[in-house]
Amino acid sequence: MKKPDIILFTSDGMRLDSLGCMGNRAAWTPHMDALVQDGVAFRNAYCQSPAGVPGRCSVMTGLYPHTTGHRTMHFLLREDEPNLMKIMQEGGYEVIWAGRNDLIPGTRKRSECCDICFDGIHDTDTKGWTSYLNTTGKRMTIRSREPDYSFFNGSQNGQEKTDENCVLNILRYLDEKKKRNDSKPFFIYCSLSFPHVPYGVSQPWYSLIDRDSLLPRKPWSADKPEMLLETSDRMNLHGWTQEEWNELRAVYLGMVAKWDSLLGMVITKLKELGRYDSTSVFVCSYHGDYTGDYDLVETLQNCFEDDLTNIPLIIKPAAQFACRPGITDAFAELVDLLPTIVEMSGMEPGYVLYGKSLLHVLAGDSEHKDAVFCEGGRPDGDAYAKESGHEDPHDPYWPRLSVQQMDGPHARATMIRMGNLKYTMRMHGKDELYDLSSDPDEIINQIDNPVYAQDILRMKLRMLEWYQQTADCIPSRKDSR
Question: What is the longest distance spanned by two Cα atoms in the chain?
Fold first, then answer.
């Protein structure tokens, strides 16, 4: 079987309901929507962590965060850990890494994992090419309205160039490969930042969003975990008007629209070069964003509302793989991406994976998993995982990170969804159970409702089984004795 070209095109914090094909009339996502005509979009795909670094490490290893211990923003992949990019290199692929890191420690070189890399900031890549870079030379800063923890910047004047620069370099790589008549298959990992705080975007994306068509905002509720309530209180955004929230949420959708346009540039180039049919395209986000729901912005590391955990996942397989295009309700996890990519490539990962290939779902199967999981938080007293360093109340991250210093609110928690029920077990504080069929906004905690007692027991046992199955990953190598 000929190895397909593969692109993994990722966002940092995109919610599922920010896509037009998922029913958001205010969204402008024509390229993701069109991709569903040739591939499969997952309505029930879940990330494995609502925090960026643990989520990225999970995707790149094909293992759950608890299996490898990647629970914080400062514990990144180690040299002896499995890595999808290295697997692809060893399997005969030319590997291109474009975009942000948040995957390997800054003391290591990205070239350890790839053949070519672009970060959109520095003016050369690993091959010495002159790269497109941020023409302003400045990072988008947060507008000062002290004390303000909204991350709202509004309309920008074009300074958010980093993602665009990465995509321009990908396009140039594809053109150069065509000129060289290079037949070696490629694996492109494009890890873009948008949408991500601060909330700001330039024209034309700022004006694309119809403010009158926005989805209703989910209300604040006292029946939520301590981490959420404490952070919400410290953000102190309860007094925002609906008009202010609508503007922030419209700007967020504008950021999604810009990200979608960058995806469209890559798809257009593949078609122009005659490589679209031979390329498998994976589109996903590492986590979501509150974007004003529950009077919150950004994300929390141990809360699991669908805002944060139910993420976009679209797979357009190369033409050699069976595919029934459309939207599926099958449960999927981001941990399933690595086994899917490896199977497409005709390779073996060399270690036990806990994700499952999605190829059979692309071919039309409606069932994949009976449950999906997400996890976060830390043990009591674990100073390393507290992520200190944002003690200044003028720091926009202060509300969340100051609460993370507290053992109770930031304690470990694990979420399982089965059917329309979502259960969260917490090391401290009250567990949660939401019935998404009657309460899609996750406002009413049914944990003490006796009607759900058997469901809660069933989900606890399923979570225990999952932990037993995935508690560790035994290395495939044998050490001499």
Answer: 69
